[in-house]
Specification:
This protein is α/β, with parallel strands linked by helices. 40% of the residues lie in helices and 15% in strands. α1 (17-28) crosses α7 (225-236), α3 (70-84) packs parallel to α4 (107-132) and α4 packs parallel to α5. It is globular and about 50 Å long.
C-alpha cells in the first residue's frame, strides 16, 4: 500500500475494463488519478470509476477526453498540473477494436482505429513529455509513461489488421521515446496484455474462442484486468527506474509457448 503516495497520474480509457482496474489500483496505492475517457459510464455496467475511487477514500477527477485530439490531451495534462503542480505518470490505455481482414477493412474503420489506438498514444506521450521536461526530477526520474500495447503488436491479430498494426506501432513508439528521452529522466515502457477477460459489453467470446485462448495459454486461467493493472503499477512506481523501452508481456505464457 502507498507505492504511489504523493504521485499524480492520468489514465486514459479509465471508465471500463483494463483502464478502470489500473485507475482504481493507482488510487488505492496513493496516487491522485485523472480519469480521461470519452464517457464516464462503464461499458459493462456498475458504478462509475470515479465513484468507486472516491468512495474508497481515493483522490480522482473525471475529464471527458477524446485521446485522438491534441487539445483534449493537452487539457488533461493541464488539469493535473493546475491541481497538483506536476504530472508524474501517464498510462495510455484507451483503445478500440474494430475488426476486419485487409480486404474487408474500410478506410473509416482503419482511420478511426489508428486515430484512437496509435495517434491517441502519440498525443498522450507528447503532452505528458512536454510537461515532464519542465519538472524537477523525483530522484532520477522526471516522469513515467506506460503505454498499453498487446501481444498482437508482435504476432498477427486474426481478422483485425488495423488493431494489430496500431498495437505494433505502440511497441515501436515506446522504444523510440525511451531512447530519445532517457537522458532527460523520462521512463517509457509498455504492458502487452494477452487474453484478458473484461466486462466491456459488446462482443462476448464464443465457447470455441475461449477454448482456443485456453489452449494457447500455459497458465491454467485466462487473464483479468487486475493482472495488467499490477504490471502497470510496477512500471509506474519508483521500483522501475533502470527499466525503459520494455514491452512487458502479461499473457500467461502465451508468447513463450
Amino acid at each position: 500500500m502507498g507505492r504511489l503516495n504523493g504521485h499524480t497520474a492520468i489514465v486514459t480509457g479509465a471508465a471500463s475494463g483494463i483502464g478502470r482496474a489500473i485507475a482504481t489500483l493507482f488510487a488505492t496505492e496513493g496516487a491522485y488519478v485523472l480519469l480521461a475517457d470519452i464517457a464516464n459510464e462503464p461499458r459493462g455496467g456498475g458504478a462509475p470509476t470515479l465513484d468507486v475511487i472516491r468512495e474508497a477514500g481515493g483522490e480522482a477527477d473525471f475529464l471527458t477526453t477524446d485521446v485522438s485530439q491534441w487539445d483534449n490531451m493537452s487539457a488533461a495534462v493541464g488539469h493535473v498540473v493546475k491541481r497538483n503542480g506536476r504530472l508524474d505518470i501517464i498510462v495510455n490505455n484507451a483503445a478500440i477494436g474494430d475488426g476486419g481482414r485487409l480486404t474487408e477493412t474500410t478506410q473509416d474503420v482503419w482511420d478511426r482505429t489508428i486515430a484512437v489506438n496509435l495517434t491517441g498514444v502519440f498525443m498522450g506521450c507528447k503532452a505528458a513529455a512536454r510537461q515532464m521536461l519542465t519538472q524537477e526530477p523525483r530522484g532520477e526520474v522526471r516522469g513515467r509513461i506506460v503505454n498499453i500495447s498487446s501481444q498482437h503488436g508482435m504476432i498477427a491479430s486474426p481478422n483485425h489488421i488495423a488493431y494489430g498494426v496500431s498495437k505494433a506501432g505502440v511497441v515501436y513508439m515506446t522504444r523510440q521515446i525511451a531512447a530519445d528521452y532517457a537522458k532527460d529522466g523520462i521512463v517509457c515502457n509498455a504492458v502487452a496484455p494477452g487474453k484478458i477477460l473484461t466486462d466491456m459489453g459488446g462482443h462476448v467470446p464464443t465457447a470455441a474462442q475461449q477454448a482456443y485462448s485456453h489452449s494457447r495459454t500455459p497458465w491454467p486461467r485466462l487473464g483479468q484486468p487486475e493482472d495488467v493493472a499490477s504490471a502497470a503499477l510496477f512500471l509506474a512506481s519508483p521500483e522501475a527506474t533502470y527499466i525503459t523501452g520494455e514491452n512487458l508481456m502479461v499473457d500467461g505464457g502465451w508468447m513463450a509457448s
